[in-house]
Here is the input.
Amino acid sequence: MSTLSRRTFLKLPLAAALLASCRRQGPPFREADFVLPARSAMGLFPAADYSVDLSDVIFRGLTVLEVNVRGLSVLLKPNMVEYEAGHAINTHPLVVAGAADALRRAGAREVIVGEGPGHRRDIEYLLTATGLFDHLRESRIRFVDLNHDEVREVPLRSWFTGMQSMALPTSLLRADMIVTMPKLKTHHWAGMTCSMKNLFGVVPGAVYGWPKNLLHVKGIDASILDLTATVRPHLTIVDAIVGMEGDGPIMGRPRTLGFLAMGTDLPAVDATCARVIGLDPKKIVYLDAAGHFLGNTDPGKIDQRGENPTRYRTTFDLIDARKNMRLES
Amino acid sequence: MADRDPAPHLVDDLRRRLRDAAGPDGGWSYYPGQASRLEPTAWALIALSAVDHAFAETQRAQLPAFLTGPIQTGDLLADAGSAGPNYAWNGLTLLALTALQVSDDAPVRSRVVSALLKAKGIQLTSADPTVMRQNNQLQAWSWIAGTFSWAEPTAWCLLALKKAGARSGDAATRIADAEAVLIDRVCHPGGWNYGNSAVFTQDLRPYVPTSALALLSMQDRRDHPAVASSLQWLEANATTERSAMALGLAAVCLHVFNRPVDAVLAALAEQDAKTKFLDNAHLAAIALYALTTREHGARAFTV
Here is the structure.
Protein backbone atom coordinates (compact mmCIF):
# COMPACT_ATOMS: atom_id res chain seq x y z
CA MET A 1 0.00 0.00 0.00
CA SER A 2 1.18 3.47 -0.74
CA THR A 3 -0.48 6.68 0.29
CA LEU A 4 0.64 10.14 -0.50
CA SER A 5 1.28 12.99 1.86
CA ARG A 6 0.80 16.55 0.71
CA ARG A 7 4.53 17.10 1.09
CA THR A 8 5.36 14.13 -1.12
CA PHE A 9 2.80 15.14 -3.68
CA LEU A 10 4.16 18.65 -3.94
CA LYS A 11 7.61 17.28 -4.73
CA LEU A 12 6.22 16.01 -8.00
CA PRO A 13 6.61 18.86 -10.44
CA LEU A 14 3.86 17.94 -12.88
CA ALA A 15 1.34 16.90 -10.29
CA ALA A 16 2.20 19.98 -8.25
CA ALA A 17 1.08 22.16 -11.12
CA LEU A 18 -2.26 20.43 -11.07
CA LEU A 19 -2.48 20.77 -7.35
CA ALA A 20 -1.73 24.46 -7.40
CA SER A 21 -4.74 25.04 -9.58
CA CYS A 22 -7.18 23.34 -7.30
CA ARG A 23 -6.15 25.35 -4.21
CA ARG A 24 -6.97 22.65 -1.71
CA GLN A 25 -5.13 21.57 1.38
CA GLY A 26 -3.58 18.13 1.01
CA PRO A 27 -3.81 15.91 -2.05
CA PRO A 28 -7.04 16.46 -3.97
CA PHE A 29 -8.57 13.14 -2.96
CA ARG A 30 -9.21 11.16 0.19
CA GLU A 31 -6.10 9.05 0.60
CA ALA A 32 -8.02 6.19 2.19
CA ASP A 33 -10.05 5.85 -1.02
CA PHE A 34 -7.03 4.92 -3.10
CA VAL A 35 -4.72 2.04 -2.34
CA LEU A 36 -2.06 1.25 -4.89
CA PRO A 37 -1.73 -2.49 -5.44
CA ALA A 38 1.64 -4.00 -4.61
CA ARG A 39 1.85 -5.33 -8.14
CA SER A 40 -0.36 -5.10 -11.22
CA ALA A 41 -0.79 -7.66 -13.95
CA MET A 42 -1.45 -6.68 -17.53
CA GLY A 43 -1.05 -8.40 -20.83
CA LEU A 44 -0.29 -7.74 -24.48
CA PHE A 45 -2.00 -10.30 -26.69
CA PRO A 46 -1.04 -10.65 -30.35
CA ALA A 47 -3.63 -9.88 -33.04
CA ALA A 48 -1.95 -9.17 -36.35
CA ASP A 49 -5.05 -7.65 -37.89
CA TYR A 50 -8.81 -7.44 -37.47
CA SER A 51 -9.47 -10.75 -39.24
CA VAL A 52 -8.14 -12.64 -36.20
CA ASP A 53 -10.75 -14.24 -33.93
CA LEU A 54 -10.78 -11.33 -31.48
CA SER A 55 -13.34 -12.97 -29.21
CA ASP A 56 -10.84 -15.77 -28.70
CA VAL A 57 -7.96 -13.36 -28.03
CA ILE A 58 -10.00 -11.43 -25.46
CA PHE A 59 -11.37 -14.56 -23.81
CA ARG A 60 -7.77 -15.76 -23.40
CA GLY A 61 -6.87 -12.39 -21.91
CA LEU A 62 -9.71 -12.62 -19.39
CA THR A 63 -8.50 -16.09 -18.40
CA VAL A 64 -4.83 -15.17 -18.12
CA LEU A 65 -5.63 -12.06 -16.09
CA GLU A 66 -8.15 -13.97 -13.95
CA VAL A 67 -10.96 -11.49 -14.57
CA ASN A 68 -14.22 -12.86 -13.19
CA VAL A 69 -17.32 -11.48 -14.94
CA ARG A 70 -19.77 -14.22 -14.02
CA GLY A 71 -23.26 -12.82 -13.41
CA LEU A 72 -22.21 -9.23 -13.98
CA SER A 73 -23.82 -6.50 -16.04
CA VAL A 74 -20.97 -5.14 -18.17
CA LEU A 75 -20.79 -1.81 -19.99
CA LEU A 76 -18.24 -1.61 -22.81
CA LYS A 77 -17.04 1.92 -23.50
CA PRO A 78 -15.26 2.06 -26.89
CA ASN A 79 -13.65 5.21 -28.27
CA MET A 80 -15.77 6.66 -31.06
CA VAL A 81 -14.89 10.21 -31.98
CA GLU A 82 -15.19 10.90 -35.68
CA TYR A 83 -15.32 8.94 -38.89
CA GLU A 84 -12.93 9.24 -41.78
CA ALA A 85 -12.54 6.34 -44.19
CA GLY A 86 -9.09 4.77 -44.01
CA HIS A 87 -8.20 6.47 -40.74
CA ALA A 88 -7.72 4.71 -37.42
CA ILE A 89 -9.74 7.04 -35.23
CA ASN A 90 -12.13 4.71 -33.45
CA THR A 91 -11.98 1.44 -31.57
CA HIS A 92 -12.57 -1.07 -34.34
CA PRO A 93 -16.13 -2.48 -34.23
CA LEU A 94 -14.74 -6.01 -34.48
CA VAL A 95 -12.85 -5.46 -31.21
CA VAL A 96 -16.07 -4.28 -29.57
CA ALA A 97 -18.06 -7.22 -30.95
CA GLY A 98 -15.25 -9.61 -29.97
CA ALA A 99 -15.21 -8.26 -26.42
CA ALA A 100 -18.97 -8.58 -26.11
CA ASP A 101 -18.82 -12.18 -27.27
CA ALA A 102 -15.91 -13.06 -25.00
CA LEU A 103 -17.57 -11.53 -21.95
CA ARG A 104 -20.80 -13.37 -22.65
CA ARG A 105 -18.84 -16.64 -22.98
CA ALA A 106 -17.13 -15.85 -19.69
CA GLY A 107 -20.52 -15.65 -17.98
CA ALA A 108 -21.49 -11.98 -18.00
CA ARG A 109 -25.20 -11.62 -17.34
CA GLU A 110 -25.55 -8.69 -19.73
CA VAL A 111 -23.21 -6.80 -22.04
CA ILE A 112 -24.11 -3.36 -23.34
CA VAL A 113 -22.10 -0.85 -25.34
CA GLY A 114 -22.13 2.81 -24.36
CA GLU A 115 -20.40 5.82 -25.83
CA GLY A 116 -20.83 9.59 -25.86
CA PRO A 117 -18.65 11.04 -28.61
CA GLY A 118 -17.00 14.32 -27.72
CA HIS A 119 -17.03 16.12 -31.05
CA ARG A 120 -19.81 14.56 -33.08
CA ARG A 121 -23.12 14.49 -31.32
CA ASP A 122 -24.73 12.55 -34.17
CA ILE A 123 -24.51 9.03 -32.74
CA GLU A 124 -26.68 7.48 -35.45
CA TYR A 125 -24.26 8.70 -38.11
CA LEU A 126 -21.18 7.49 -36.22
CA LEU A 127 -22.67 4.07 -35.51
CA THR A 128 -23.67 3.71 -39.16
CA ALA A 129 -20.44 5.05 -40.67
CA THR A 130 -18.11 3.06 -38.43
CA GLY A 131 -20.02 -0.17 -39.05
CA LEU A 132 -20.66 -0.69 -35.33
CA PHE A 133 -24.41 -0.42 -35.90
CA ASP A 134 -24.49 -3.64 -37.96
CA HIS A 135 -22.44 -5.54 -35.37
CA LEU A 136 -24.69 -4.38 -32.54
CA ARG A 137 -27.82 -5.42 -34.40
CA GLU A 138 -26.38 -8.72 -35.56
CA SER A 139 -25.11 -9.66 -32.09
CA ARG A 140 -28.19 -8.25 -30.33
CA ILE A 141 -26.13 -5.92 -28.19
CA ARG A 142 -27.93 -3.00 -26.62
CA PHE A 143 -26.37 0.41 -27.24
CA VAL A 144 -26.55 3.28 -24.76
CA ASP A 145 -26.03 6.79 -26.07
CA LEU A 146 -24.13 8.19 -23.10
CA ASN A 147 -24.46 11.75 -24.40
CA HIS A 148 -28.24 11.60 -24.10
CA ASP A 149 -28.74 9.08 -21.34
CA GLU A 150 -30.50 10.07 -18.13
CA VAL A 151 -28.03 11.64 -15.72
CA ARG A 152 -27.38 11.90 -12.02
CA GLU A 153 -25.11 14.38 -10.27
CA VAL A 154 -22.45 12.39 -8.43
CA PRO A 155 -19.68 13.52 -6.10
CA LEU A 156 -16.20 13.28 -7.62
CA ARG A 157 -13.68 11.09 -5.82
CA SER A 158 -10.80 13.44 -6.62
CA TRP A 159 -10.82 17.19 -7.18
CA PHE A 160 -7.95 18.03 -9.51
CA THR A 161 -10.40 20.10 -11.57
CA GLY A 162 -11.65 21.94 -8.51
CA MET A 163 -15.12 20.52 -9.18
CA GLN A 164 -16.90 18.64 -6.44
CA SER A 165 -19.46 16.80 -8.55
CA MET A 166 -20.46 16.02 -12.10
CA ALA A 167 -23.53 14.72 -13.92
CA LEU A 168 -22.89 11.20 -15.21
CA PRO A 169 -25.08 8.79 -17.21
CA THR A 170 -27.17 6.47 -15.08
CA SER A 171 -26.44 3.50 -17.34
CA LEU A 172 -22.79 3.93 -16.51
CA LEU A 173 -23.51 4.24 -12.80
CA ARG A 174 -25.72 1.15 -12.82
CA ALA A 175 -23.24 -1.19 -14.53
CA ASP A 176 -21.56 -3.79 -12.33
CA MET A 177 -18.47 -3.64 -14.47
CA ILE A 178 -17.15 -0.90 -16.75
CA VAL A 179 -14.70 -1.82 -19.48
CA THR A 180 -12.88 1.05 -21.14
CA MET A 181 -11.96 0.13 -24.73
CA PRO A 182 -9.72 2.82 -26.19
CA LYS A 183 -7.81 3.07 -29.41
CA LEU A 184 -4.10 3.65 -28.74
CA LYS A 185 -3.38 7.08 -30.23
CA THR A 186 -1.19 10.09 -29.81
CA HIS A 187 -3.10 13.12 -28.62
CA HIS A 188 -2.20 16.65 -29.62
CA TRP A 189 -3.11 18.11 -26.22
CA ALA A 190 -2.54 15.31 -23.70
CA GLY A 191 0.29 13.44 -25.45
CA MET A 192 -1.46 10.09 -25.57
CA THR A 193 -5.05 8.87 -25.40
CA CYS A 194 -5.65 5.42 -24.05
CA SER A 195 -7.70 3.81 -21.25
CA MET A 196 -7.98 6.90 -19.05
CA LYS A 197 -8.48 9.66 -21.61
CA ASN A 198 -11.19 7.49 -23.21
CA LEU A 199 -13.38 8.35 -20.22
CA PHE A 200 -14.12 11.79 -21.66
CA GLY A 201 -16.75 9.87 -23.59
CA VAL A 202 -18.78 9.12 -20.48
CA VAL A 203 -19.42 12.81 -19.85
CA PRO A 204 -22.94 13.58 -21.11
CA GLY A 205 -22.85 16.01 -24.03
CA ALA A 206 -26.52 16.87 -23.66
CA VAL A 207 -25.56 18.42 -20.33
CA TYR A 208 -22.08 19.80 -21.05
CA GLY A 209 -22.09 20.26 -24.84
CA TRP A 210 -19.81 19.35 -27.72
CA PRO A 211 -16.88 19.45 -27.40
CA LYS A 212 -17.04 18.70 -23.71
CA ASN A 213 -15.53 22.10 -23.14
CA LEU A 214 -15.92 22.11 -19.37
CA LEU A 215 -13.22 19.44 -19.27
CA HIS A 216 -10.90 21.63 -21.34
CA VAL A 217 -11.61 24.72 -19.27
CA LYS A 218 -10.93 22.78 -16.05
CA GLY A 219 -7.82 21.22 -17.55
CA ILE A 220 -7.57 18.10 -19.69
CA ASP A 221 -5.09 16.34 -17.38
CA ALA A 222 -7.05 17.24 -14.26
CA SER A 223 -10.29 16.07 -15.88
CA ILE A 224 -8.77 12.74 -16.91
CA LEU A 225 -7.69 12.16 -13.31
CA ASP A 226 -11.04 13.10 -11.78
CA LEU A 227 -12.97 10.97 -14.24
CA THR A 228 -10.76 7.94 -13.75
CA ALA A 229 -10.84 8.32 -9.98
CA THR A 230 -14.63 8.60 -10.00
CA VAL A 231 -15.67 6.11 -12.68
CA ARG A 232 -13.00 3.55 -11.71
CA PRO A 233 -13.33 1.21 -14.72
CA HIS A 234 -12.71 -2.40 -13.79
CA LEU A 235 -10.94 -3.46 -16.96
CA THR A 236 -9.37 -2.02 -20.08
CA ILE A 237 -9.08 -3.62 -23.50
CA VAL A 238 -6.92 -1.45 -25.74
CA ASP A 239 -7.23 -1.65 -29.51
CA ALA A 240 -3.57 -1.45 -30.50
CA ILE A 241 -3.95 -3.60 -33.58
CA VAL A 242 -3.77 -0.39 -35.59
CA GLY A 243 -3.03 2.77 -33.60
CA MET A 244 -2.63 6.39 -34.59
CA GLU A 245 0.56 8.46 -34.62
CA GLY A 246 1.23 12.13 -35.37
CA ASP A 247 -1.61 14.61 -34.94
CA GLY A 248 -3.96 12.35 -33.01
CA PRO A 249 -6.63 11.76 -31.89
CA ILE A 250 -8.32 12.50 -35.24
CA MET A 251 -5.96 13.84 -37.89
CA GLY A 252 -3.01 11.48 -37.37
CA ARG A 253 -1.85 8.53 -39.46
CA PRO A 254 -2.68 4.85 -38.88
CA ARG A 255 0.20 2.78 -37.52
CA THR A 256 0.04 -1.00 -37.24
CA LEU A 257 1.10 -2.44 -33.88
CA GLY A 258 -0.60 -5.83 -33.86
CA PHE A 259 -1.81 -6.41 -30.31
CA LEU A 260 -4.59 -5.93 -27.78
CA ALA A 261 -3.54 -4.72 -24.33
CA MET A 262 -5.62 -5.76 -21.33
CA GLY A 263 -5.51 -5.19 -17.61
CA THR A 264 -7.44 -4.14 -14.56
CA ASP A 265 -4.99 -1.41 -13.52
CA LEU A 266 -5.53 1.41 -16.03
CA PRO A 267 -2.37 3.42 -15.30
CA ALA A 268 -0.31 0.21 -15.58
CA VAL A 269 -1.77 -0.55 -18.99
CA ASP A 270 -1.50 3.04 -20.21
CA ALA A 271 2.08 3.40 -18.99
CA THR A 272 3.06 0.18 -20.75
CA CYS A 273 1.34 1.31 -23.96
CA ALA A 274 3.11 4.68 -23.70
CA ARG A 275 6.50 3.00 -23.46
CA VAL A 276 5.66 0.74 -26.40
CA ILE A 277 5.05 3.76 -28.64
CA GLY A 278 8.09 5.65 -27.35
CA LEU A 279 6.45 8.02 -24.87
CA ASP A 280 7.65 8.56 -21.32
CA PRO A 281 4.77 8.04 -18.83
CA LYS A 282 6.48 10.49 -16.46
CA LYS A 283 6.17 13.21 -19.09
CA ILE A 284 2.48 12.60 -19.68
CA VAL A 285 1.04 14.81 -16.95
CA TYR A 286 -2.07 12.83 -16.07
CA LEU A 287 -0.28 9.50 -16.20
CA ASP A 288 2.52 10.74 -13.97
CA ALA A 289 0.00 11.90 -11.37
CA ALA A 290 -2.12 8.74 -11.76
CA GLY A 291 0.91 6.63 -10.88
CA HIS A 292 0.81 8.05 -7.37
CA PHE A 293 -2.74 7.11 -6.45
CA LEU A 294 -4.69 5.37 -9.21
CA GLY A 295 -2.39 2.56 -10.27
CA ASN A 296 1.13 1.41 -10.93
CA THR A 297 3.12 3.03 -13.69
CA ASP A 298 6.53 1.84 -12.52
CA PRO A 299 7.50 -1.05 -14.83
CA GLY A 300 9.10 -2.79 -11.83
CA LYS A 301 5.64 -3.21 -10.32
CA ILE A 302 3.90 -4.44 -13.46
CA ASP A 303 3.74 -8.17 -14.19
CA GLN A 304 3.63 -8.68 -17.92
CA ARG A 305 1.48 -11.51 -19.23
CA GLY A 306 1.17 -12.51 -22.85
CA GLU A 307 3.84 -11.00 -25.07
CA ASN A 308 6.86 -9.07 -23.89
CA PRO A 309 6.29 -5.36 -24.65
CA THR A 310 9.75 -5.12 -26.23
CA ARG A 311 8.39 -7.19 -29.11
CA TYR A 312 6.22 -4.24 -30.13
CA ARG A 313 8.52 -1.40 -29.05
CA THR A 314 8.49 1.39 -31.61
CA THR A 315 8.50 5.18 -31.84
CA PHE A 316 5.31 6.95 -32.82
CA ASP A 317 5.62 10.22 -34.67
CA LEU A 318 4.51 13.22 -32.57
CA ILE A 319 3.57 16.78 -33.38
CA ASP A 320 6.36 19.24 -32.53
CA ALA A 321 4.55 20.53 -29.43
CA ARG A 322 4.60 17.03 -27.86
CA LYS A 323 8.08 15.82 -28.86
CA ASN A 324 9.27 16.65 -25.34
CA MET A 325 7.24 13.65 -24.13
CA ARG A 326 9.49 11.16 -25.86
CA LEU A 327 11.06 8.34 -23.92
CA GLU A 328 14.79 8.87 -23.77
CA SER A 329 16.63 5.78 -24.91
CA MET B 1 -36.39 17.19 -60.20
CA ALA B 2 -40.08 16.86 -59.44
CA ASP B 3 -41.16 17.13 -55.83
CA ARG B 4 -42.28 13.85 -54.33
CA ASP B 5 -43.87 13.24 -50.99
CA PRO B 6 -42.23 10.68 -48.73
CA ALA B 7 -44.16 7.49 -48.04
CA PRO B 8 -47.24 8.62 -46.07
CA HIS B 9 -47.16 5.50 -43.92
CA LEU B 10 -43.73 6.50 -42.64
CA VAL B 11 -45.01 9.94 -41.65
CA ASP B 12 -47.96 8.33 -39.87
CA ASP B 13 -45.64 5.89 -38.14
CA LEU B 14 -43.32 8.66 -36.97
CA ARG B 15 -46.26 10.73 -35.75
CA ARG B 16 -47.57 7.76 -33.79
CA ARG B 17 -44.16 6.91 -32.35
CA LEU B 18 -43.65 10.48 -31.24
CA ARG B 19 -47.09 10.82 -29.68
CA ASP B 20 -46.64 7.51 -27.85
CA ALA B 21 -43.30 8.70 -26.49
CA ALA B 22 -44.81 11.65 -24.58
CA GLY B 23 -44.23 11.46 -20.84
CA PRO B 24 -46.84 11.93 -18.12
CA ASP B 25 -45.61 15.49 -17.53
CA GLY B 26 -46.29 16.39 -21.17
CA GLY B 27 -42.63 16.40 -22.08
CA TRP B 28 -40.42 14.04 -24.05
CA SER B 29 -37.25 12.20 -23.05
CA TYR B 30 -34.54 11.16 -25.48
CA TYR B 31 -35.10 7.47 -24.77
CA PRO B 32 -38.14 5.57 -23.42
CA GLY B 33 -38.68 5.42 -19.70
CA GLN B 34 -36.52 8.41 -18.86
CA ALA B 35 -37.28 11.87 -17.50
CA SER B 36 -38.40 14.61 -19.87
CA ARG B 37 -35.64 16.78 -21.30
CA LEU B 38 -35.71 20.13 -23.05
CA GLU B 39 -34.24 19.19 -26.42
CA PRO B 40 -36.53 16.27 -27.31
CA THR B 41 -39.52 18.14 -25.86
CA ALA B 42 -38.87 21.24 -27.97
CA TRP B 43 -38.34 19.17 -31.11
CA ALA B 44 -41.48 17.11 -30.48
CA LEU B 45 -43.53 20.28 -29.98
CA ILE B 46 -42.16 21.78 -33.19
CA ALA B 47 -42.71 18.62 -35.24
CA LEU B 48 -46.16 17.65 -33.95
CA SER B 49 -47.53 21.19 -34.01
CA ALA B 50 -46.39 21.52 -37.63
CA VAL B 51 -48.44 18.52 -38.74
CA ASP B 52 -51.36 18.73 -36.34
CA HIS B 53 -53.07 22.08 -35.79
CA ALA B 54 -55.30 20.75 -33.02
CA PHE B 55 -52.23 19.56 -31.16
CA ALA B 56 -50.65 23.02 -31.56
CA GLU B 57 -53.73 24.72 -30.16
CA THR B 58 -53.90 22.38 -27.20
CA GLN B 59 -50.24 22.90 -26.39
CA ARG B 60 -50.52 26.65 -26.80
CA ALA B 61 -53.46 26.73 -24.41
CA GLN B 62 -51.60 24.70 -21.84
CA LEU B 63 -47.87 24.28 -22.20
CA PRO B 64 -46.36 21.10 -20.76
CA ALA B 65 -45.95 21.43 -16.99
CA PHE B 66 -42.37 20.49 -17.55
CA LEU B 67 -41.79 23.88 -19.28
CA THR B 68 -43.81 26.04 -16.95
CA GLY B 69 -42.82 24.59 -13.59
CA PRO B 70 -40.63 26.48 -11.12
CA ILE B 71 -37.36 27.60 -12.61
CA GLN B 72 -34.61 27.05 -10.11
CA THR B 73 -31.66 28.20 -12.14
CA GLY B 74 -32.31 31.88 -12.72
CA ASP B 75 -34.48 32.60 -15.71
CA LEU B 76 -33.38 29.71 -17.89
CA LEU B 77 -34.83 26.21 -18.02
CA ALA B 78 -32.65 23.30 -16.95
CA ASP B 79 -32.91 19.56 -17.35
CA ALA B 80 -33.31 17.33 -14.31
CA GLY B 81 -29.94 16.12 -13.06
CA SER B 82 -28.04 19.01 -14.65
CA ALA B 83 -26.15 21.43 -12.44
CA GLY B 84 -27.23 24.38 -14.59
CA PRO B 85 -29.00 25.43 -17.76
CA ASN B 86 -27.86 24.54 -21.25
CA TYR B 87 -28.10 27.66 -23.43
CA ALA B 88 -28.60 25.70 -26.66
CA TRP B 89 -31.69 23.91 -25.37
CA ASN B 90 -33.10 27.19 -24.11
CA GLY B 91 -32.63 28.66 -27.58
CA LEU B 92 -34.36 25.64 -29.08
CA THR B 93 -37.17 25.88 -26.52
CA LEU B 94 -37.68 29.52 -27.44
CA LEU B 95 -37.95 28.43 -31.06
CA ALA B 96 -40.61 25.89 -30.04
CA LEU B 97 -42.55 28.52 -28.08
CA THR B 98 -42.44 30.78 -31.13
CA ALA B 99 -43.62 27.93 -33.35
CA LEU B 100 -46.55 27.37 -30.98
CA GLN B 101 -47.28 31.11 -31.18
CA VAL B 102 -46.99 31.48 -27.44
CA SER B 103 -47.51 35.13 -26.69
CA ASP B 104 -44.46 37.41 -26.35
CA ASP B 105 -45.42 38.34 -22.82
CA ALA B 106 -45.97 34.78 -21.58
CA PRO B 107 -43.70 34.47 -18.52
CA VAL B 108 -41.65 31.52 -19.73
CA ARG B 109 -41.01 33.12 -23.11
CA SER B 110 -40.10 36.59 -21.87
CA ARG B 111 -37.80 35.17 -19.17
CA VAL B 112 -35.96 32.93 -21.62
CA VAL B 113 -35.47 35.78 -24.12
CA SER B 114 -34.19 38.10 -21.45
CA ALA B 115 -31.86 35.51 -19.93
CA LEU B 116 -30.46 34.41 -23.29
CA LEU B 117 -29.56 38.00 -24.08
CA LYS B 118 -27.47 38.07 -20.91
CA ALA B 119 -25.85 34.64 -21.32
CA LYS B 120 -22.59 34.44 -23.23
CA GLY B 121 -19.49 32.33 -23.63
CA ILE B 122 -16.23 33.26 -21.97
CA GLN B 123 -13.36 35.06 -23.70
CA LEU B 124 -10.04 33.28 -23.94
CA THR B 125 -6.63 34.73 -24.63
CA SER B 126 -5.91 35.19 -28.31
CA ALA B 127 -5.14 31.91 -29.97
CA ASP B 128 -1.68 31.21 -31.34
CA PRO B 129 -2.45 31.08 -35.09
CA THR B 130 -0.23 28.01 -35.42
CA VAL B 131 -2.44 26.24 -32.89
CA MET B 132 -5.92 27.54 -33.74
CA ARG B 133 -7.14 29.75 -36.56
CA GLN B 134 -9.85 31.63 -34.73
CA ASN B 135 -10.59 34.74 -32.72
CA ASN B 136 -11.00 33.71 -29.09
CA GLN B 137 -12.13 37.18 -28.05
CA LEU B 138 -15.47 36.87 -29.83
CA GLN B 139 -18.39 35.94 -27.60
CA ALA B 140 -21.65 34.33 -28.59
CA TRP B 141 -23.26 31.40 -26.77
CA SER B 142 -21.58 28.50 -25.02
CA TRP B 143 -23.36 25.29 -24.12
CA ILE B 144 -23.20 26.02 -20.40
CA ALA B 145 -22.01 28.88 -18.20
CA GLY B 146 -18.27 29.38 -17.81
CA THR B 147 -17.25 27.82 -21.10
CA PHE B 148 -16.38 28.97 -24.63
CA SER B 149 -18.76 29.86 -27.49
CA TRP B 150 -19.42 26.98 -29.91
CA ALA B 151 -21.23 26.61 -33.21
CA GLU B 152 -24.39 24.75 -32.18
CA PRO B 153 -25.49 26.75 -29.12
CA THR B 154 -24.66 29.94 -31.00
CA ALA B 155 -26.77 28.85 -33.97
CA TRP B 156 -29.76 27.80 -31.83
CA CYS B 157 -29.79 31.01 -29.80
CA LEU B 158 -29.17 33.19 -32.86
CA LEU B 159 -31.96 31.56 -34.84
CA ALA B 160 -34.33 31.65 -31.86
CA LEU B 161 -33.78 35.37 -31.23
CA LYS B 162 -34.18 36.23 -34.91
CA LYS B 163 -37.30 34.12 -35.16
CA ALA B 164 -38.71 35.66 -31.96
CA GLY B 165 -38.26 39.10 -33.50
CA ALA B 166 -35.77 40.25 -30.86
CA ARG B 167 -33.67 42.56 -32.99
CA SER B 168 -33.32 45.86 -31.18
CA GLY B 169 -30.95 47.12 -28.47
CA ASP B 170 -29.07 44.31 -26.74
CA ALA B 171 -30.51 41.79 -29.14
CA ALA B 172 -29.01 43.57 -32.15
CA THR B 173 -25.57 43.50 -30.50
CA ARG B 174 -25.82 39.84 -29.55
CA ILE B 175 -27.02 38.90 -33.02
CA ALA B 176 -24.10 40.75 -34.63
CA ASP B 177 -21.63 39.10 -32.24
CA ALA B 178 -23.08 35.66 -32.89
CA GLU B 179 -22.88 36.11 -36.64
CA ALA B 180 -19.25 37.19 -36.23
CA VAL B 181 -18.49 34.00 -34.29
CA LEU B 182 -20.05 31.77 -36.93
CA ILE B 183 -18.25 33.58 -39.74
CA ASP B 184 -14.98 33.29 -37.81
CA ARG B 185 -15.42 29.54 -37.31
CA VAL B 186 -16.44 28.57 -40.83
CA CYS B 187 -14.39 25.66 -42.16
CA HIS B 188 -12.09 26.04 -45.13
CA PRO B 189 -14.43 24.49 -47.73
CA GLY B 190 -17.49 26.09 -46.10
CA GLY B 191 -19.70 24.60 -43.40
CA TRP B 192 -19.17 24.16 -39.68
CA ASN B 193 -18.14 21.46 -37.27
CA TYR B 194 -18.53 21.82 -33.49
CA GLY B 195 -16.60 25.07 -33.71
CA ASN B 196 -12.89 24.77 -34.50
CA SER B 197 -12.06 25.18 -38.17
CA ALA B 198 -8.35 24.38 -37.80
CA VAL B 199 -6.13 22.99 -35.06
CA PHE B 200 -2.33 22.71 -35.28
CA THR B 201 -2.47 24.00 -38.90
CA GLN B 202 -4.75 21.11 -39.96
CA ASP B 203 -8.09 22.11 -41.46
CA LEU B 204 -10.89 20.25 -39.73
CA ARG B 205 -13.91 18.84 -41.57
CA PRO B 206 -17.34 20.45 -41.47
CA TYR B 207 -20.32 18.36 -40.31
CA VAL B 208 -23.65 18.21 -42.12
CA PRO B 209 -26.00 18.82 -39.16
CA THR B 210 -24.02 21.69 -37.66
CA SER B 211 -23.63 23.27 -41.07
CA ALA B 212 -27.35 23.04 -41.74
CA LEU B 213 -28.18 24.54 -38.37
CA ALA B 214 -25.64 27.37 -38.68
CA LEU B 215 -26.94 28.14 -42.18
CA LEU B 216 -30.50 28.32 -40.86
CA SER B 217 -29.37 30.83 -38.29
CA MET B 218 -27.65 32.88 -41.03
CA GLN B 219 -30.43 32.59 -43.62
CA ASP B 220 -30.90 36.36 -43.69
CA ARG B 221 -27.21 36.82 -44.50
CA ARG B 222 -27.14 34.70 -47.64
CA ASP B 223 -25.08 37.24 -49.54
CA HIS B 224 -22.14 36.74 -47.19
CA PRO B 225 -19.35 34.65 -48.80
CA ALA B 226 -19.17 32.33 -45.75
CA VAL B 227 -22.88 31.59 -46.05
CA ALA B 228 -22.70 31.12 -49.82
CA SER B 229 -19.74 28.72 -49.64
CA SER B 230 -21.36 26.81 -46.77
CA LEU B 231 -24.60 26.40 -48.66
CA GLN B 232 -22.66 25.13 -51.64
CA TRP B 233 -20.81 22.67 -49.39
CA LEU B 234 -24.06 21.48 -47.81
CA GLU B 235 -25.74 20.93 -51.17
CA ALA B 236 -22.82 18.81 -52.29
CA ASN B 237 -22.62 16.80 -49.06
CA ALA B 238 -26.19 16.64 -47.75
CA THR B 239 -26.55 12.88 -48.16
CA THR B 240 -23.04 11.88 -47.12
CA GLU B 241 -23.88 11.56 -43.43
CA ARG B 242 -26.59 8.96 -42.92
CA SER B 243 -28.71 9.77 -39.89
CA ALA B 244 -32.03 11.39 -39.04
CA MET B 245 -30.21 14.34 -37.54
CA ALA B 246 -27.94 15.04 -40.51
CA LEU B 247 -30.45 14.30 -43.26
CA GLY B 248 -33.35 15.94 -41.43
CA LEU B 249 -31.58 19.20 -40.67
CA ALA B 250 -30.08 19.27 -44.16
CA ALA B 251 -33.53 18.85 -45.73
CA VAL B 252 -35.04 21.64 -43.62
CA CYS B 253 -32.13 23.94 -44.38
CA LEU B 254 -32.10 23.30 -48.11
CA HIS B 255 -35.86 23.81 -48.23
CA VAL B 256 -35.52 27.16 -46.46
CA PHE B 257 -32.83 28.15 -48.99
CA ASN B 258 -35.09 27.01 -51.86
CA ARG B 259 -32.79 24.20 -52.93
CA PRO B 260 -33.88 20.71 -54.10
CA VAL B 261 -34.49 18.25 -51.27
CA ASP B 262 -35.80 15.10 -52.96
CA ALA B 263 -32.59 13.11 -52.68
CA VAL B 264 -32.17 14.10 -49.04
CA LEU B 265 -35.74 13.15 -48.15
CA ALA B 266 -35.40 9.83 -49.95
CA ALA B 267 -32.24 9.07 -47.97
CA LEU B 268 -33.98 10.11 -44.76
CA ALA B 269 -36.90 7.76 -45.43
CA GLU B 270 -34.46 4.96 -46.20
CA GLN B 271 -32.58 5.62 -42.97
CA ASP B 272 -35.66 5.14 -40.79
CA ALA B 273 -34.99 1.47 -40.03
CA LYS B 274 -31.80 2.49 -38.24
CA THR B 275 -33.33 5.56 -36.64
CA LYS B 276 -36.14 3.39 -35.32
CA PHE B 277 -33.66 0.90 -33.84
CA LEU B 278 -32.24 3.70 -31.65
CA ASP B 279 -35.76 4.58 -30.44
CA ASN B 280 -34.81 8.20 -29.78
CA ALA B 281 -37.73 10.68 -29.67
CA HIS B 282 -35.51 13.62 -30.58
CA LEU B 283 -34.41 11.92 -33.79
CA ALA B 284 -37.96 10.80 -34.61
CA ALA B 285 -39.13 14.40 -34.25
CA ILE B 286 -36.45 15.72 -36.58
CA ALA B 287 -37.35 13.04 -39.14
CA LEU B 288 -41.07 13.80 -38.89
CA TYR B 289 -40.55 17.53 -39.28
CA ALA B 290 -38.19 17.13 -42.23
CA LEU B 291 -40.31 14.57 -44.06
CA THR B 292 -43.31 16.90 -43.87
CA THR B 293 -41.39 20.04 -44.81
CA ARG B 294 -43.43 20.66 -47.96
CA GLU B 295 -46.63 20.43 -45.96
CA HIS B 296 -45.70 23.08 -43.40
CA GLY B 297 -43.02 25.00 -45.30
CA ALA B 298 -40.49 24.75 -42.44
CA ARG B 299 -42.03 27.88 -40.98
CA ALA B 300 -40.62 27.18 -37.52
CA PHE B 301 -37.14 27.67 -38.97
CA THR B 302 -37.82 30.42 -41.48
CA VAL B 303 -36.87 33.96 -40.56
